[in-house]
Design goal:
CATH class: Alpha Beta
CATH topology: Nuclear Transport Factor 2, Chain: A
Number of helices: 6
Strand content: 35-45%
Structural class: alpha+beta
Mean pLDDT: 87
Order of helices and strands: HHEHHEEHEEEEH
Low-confidence stretches: 1-25
Distance between the termini: 37 Å
Strand order of the largest sheet: 1-4-5-6-7-2-3
Radius of gyration: 22 Å
Number of strands: 7
């Protein structure tokens, strides 16, 4: 029985490996120019995202920034399980803005158009540095923010930054789990 189970497991793993290898090689055959192209609304979309980041992060005008998001907006990140809708992101930023002073952002942006699939459409990718003072502590960290723009509004985005750095700077500590 052990031999049959081991043999079956090995055969299953081999079949999976072959399938994964075929899928990987198929995706490698797709050319960049077939997947991604120039964003025909490049200037307008970069302006939308830049205005959003400056309005929210520097000016702290949450209501004006929220008006730049679509009604079906979804935000993702910084962690893989983090997601927020329009109401949650607005509520979260209203709290953040009341705690943060001396807000500054510095970033560069690029844009591209994904031609097909679940992520198709116009994207603006930014990376830069955000800084602020909270509870008398100066916090400065790099971030990466990518937004999907449809009809002049951000309808989804992804943000990546080191949350742990911010929490440690604010004085939070990590307690390892007891054994």
């Amino acid at each position: 029985m052990k031999t049959v189970t081991t043999g079956f497991l090995f055969a299953t793993l081999m079949a999976f490996s072959i399938t994964a290898a075929k899928a990987q090689s198929a995706s490698q055959d797709v050319k960049y120019s077939e997947m991604v192209g120039e964003n025909p609304n490049a200037e307008a979309d970069i302006k939308t995202v830049s205005d959003y980041l400056n309005t929210l992060l520097v000016a702290g005008d949450v209501d004006k920034a929220t008006a730049m998001l679509s009604a079906n907006y979804m935000g993702y990140g910084p962690g893989p399980d983090d997601s927020v809708n329009l109401q949650t992101t607005t509520d979260d930023w209203k709290q953040n803005i009341t705690r943060q002073q001396n807000r500054k952002v510095n970033f560069v942006a690029e844009t591209f158009n994904v031609k097909s699939g679940d992520l198709s459409g116009h994207w603006v990718s930014t990376w830069g540095t955000y800084s602020f003072t909270q509870d008398g502590k100066d916090i400065k960290f790099p971030f990466q923010y990518t937004a999907h723009v449809t009809n002049g509004k951000i309808d989804q985005d992804r943000v990546y930054y080191d949350q742990m750095y911010i929490l440690k700077t604010l004085g939070y500590t990590i307690t390892p789990p007891s054994k």
